[in-house]
Write a structure and sequence with these properties.
The complex is a heterodimer of chains A (172) and B (242). Chain A is mostly helical and 172 residues long. Helices cover 66% and strands 0% of the residues of chain A. In chain A, helix 6 crosses helix 8. In chain B, 70% of the residues lie in helices and 0% in strands. By secondary structure, chain B is mainly alpha-helical. Classes of the chains: A mainly alpha (172), B mainly alpha (242). Chains A and B meet through helix 2, helix 3, helix 5 and helix 8 of A and helix 1, helix 2 and helix 3 of B.
């Protein structure tokens, strides 16, 4: 990123190729494809325009996902569909959201899992994907989501519990 | 039990690593190629835009400097123009030599009672310039001069008249420029103050108030300034100058 800041366009291409898939999947696991592409484009354009202000105070990955998280939060707020997630929230069972009759083969488990992710509360959704898709640590998740480390752990725990309950509900 | 079932059971054991592993089995879609091209192009253009902004920044500064220099050069011209407008006929005339010269011309051209009064206030015993005009037109001086006032004999009166006439003519041969040169800018206003009528009013006032000495002085002054002016005999009798 510093090289790109200095004017090396090839350095940006390298960064882009390395992170484009993770960011795209992070968005597409939560949103409809068209919306995911729109936000995906916005995030990279924003990063390009803000390159002069980039400071190496954290890893580039954290910087990139912070922009991504903020853009996603703005989207949900505009959609008026933002569900505040608290540590004390009682998890809603995802069992009723999935039709168990659709689960018929090995790959179905994965699909069920992906479907379950889409139905998680947004904060838990993001925490889980930042963990399993982007490979961020608890500390990095907290930094990206601008929350405490305990809040990040709590969201992640709730997300996994819900997904496990979801899968248990389908497969007894 | 099928492998897939065992796998699901393992997941049901609440192992986070396995949940993550299950997730890793999912397909990994990539962004569409048109987005790749668009974003990479934007990155390249941003670099070009940055270069253009640098040029614009420089050109902006250069333009500002040029404008500033033009303003600095034109500003004194505008001030000079404004100063010229300021020095118009309606403004104070004491600021330039041209207006002083105009004032001189005005004074010499008028040659009237106004100049006589002003000059009299500057030098009380000096006859006024208009006497030169009067003396030029008059056949012979009929009134007594300032010197004649001091004499009571007829012979002395004639002598003093001749002397005063000559004195006046010599004194005021070039009196106009001198008188005008020493007259301050406010002189036109003061020249209008003392007319013969005003002096008579003042004399009568002194007589009424019992100040005969003052009245006598005023009469002498009136005769000196306006020798042809006929003073009432009653006044002359009261001040004992008849």
């Amino acid at each position: 990123m510093l090289k790109y800041q200095a004017g090396d366009t090839a350095a940006f291409d390298t960064l882009y190729e390395k992170y484009k898939g993770d960011v795209y999947r992070f968005l597409s696991r939560q949103l409809e494809p068209a919306i995911a592409e729109e936000l995906y484009q916005d995030i990279w354009i924003k990063l390009i325009k803000a390159k002069d202000h980039y400071q190496q105070t954290a890893s580039f990955r954290t910087y990139l996902y912070t922009i991504t998280h903020n853009r996603l939060r703005d989207h949900w707020r505009k959609q008026a569909n933002f569900k505040e997630d608290t540590d004390n929230e009682t998890s809603t069972s995802l069992v009723d959201t999935i039709n168990p009759e659709t689960v018929t083969n090995d790959n179905q488990a994965v699909n069920v899992l992906l479907e379950g992710i889409k139905h998680l509360p947004q904060e838990q959704q993001q925490a889980f994907l930042l963990k399993v898709e982007s490979g961020l640590s608890i500390e990095e998740i907290a930094e990206v989501m601008q929350s405490s480390k305990e809040s990040a752990k709590s969201r992640l725990r709730y997300a996994m519990k819900k997904l496990r309950d979801h899968l248990r509900g389908i497969w007894p | 039990m099928a492998m897939s079932d065992k796998k699901i059971i393992d997941i049901n054991a609440h192992n986070d690593p396995e949940l993550e592993a299950l997730y890793q089995q999912a397909s990994k879609p990539q962004p569409p190629e048109h987005l790749d091209k668009l974003i990479k192009q934007a990155a390249a253009e941003q670099r070009s835009v940055k270069k253009l902004r640098r040029h614009h920044w420089f050109s902006g500064i250069a333009a500002s400097v040029i404008v500033g220099l033009l303003v600095l050069q034109l500003y004194p011209v505008s001030i000079e123009h404004d100063t010229t407008d300021y020095l118009s006929e309606k403004t104070q005339p004491v600021l330039s030599d041209d207006l002083t010269q105009k004032e001189e011309d005005h004074f010499t051209a008028v040659q009237g009672e106004k100049m006589a009064k002003s000059s009299k206030r500057q030098q009380a015993s000096t006859p006024m310039p208009e006497q030169k005009m009067m003396m030029g037109n008059a056949a012979a001086p009929a009134s007594d001069s300032a010197f004649a006032l001091q004499s009571t004999t007829s012979a002395d009166i004639n002598t003093y008249s001749d002397m005063s006439r000559q004195h006046v003519s010599e004194t005021f041969s070039d009196a106009a420029p001198e008188a005008s040169s020493i007259v301050p800018a406010e002189a036109p206003i003061k020249m209008e103050l003392d007319t013969p009528q005003r002096m008579i009013e003042r004399i009568e006032k002194y007589i009424k108030e019992g100040e005969i000495e003052q009245a006598r002085k005023e009469v002498k002054l009136l005769k000196a300034q306006y020798p042809d002016f006929e003073i009432k005999k009653e006044i002359l009798k009261r001040v004992e100058l008849d």
